[in-house]
Amino acid sequence: xxxxxxxxxxxxxxxxxxxxxxxxxxxxxxxxxxxxxxxxxxxxxxxxxxxxxxxxxxxxxxxxxxxxxxxxxxxxxxxxxxxxxxxxxxxxxxxxxx
Length: 98
Prior knowledge:
single chain, alpha+beta, five-stranded antiparallel β-sheet, 2 helices, 5 strands, 31% helix
């Protein structure tokens, strides 16, 4: 039983970036009613940062441009010591080529 739990935890840790990518794309598309895609997600759990590369939010029918929003990269970093606090301390927000 312990091996199964450990294996599951390792699987989730190793695949967390792909899991987050799939969740953002599916839930973002459902919430907005348009196609939301991401090229890649990079999570650094130990340092408290996440990077989303190639975020695209489609336009609804009737608009001439393909995307309503396109961002090359978004990185958010927080102070890992504040994860269990009521208020998280964000140390960096970086948006490249919105």
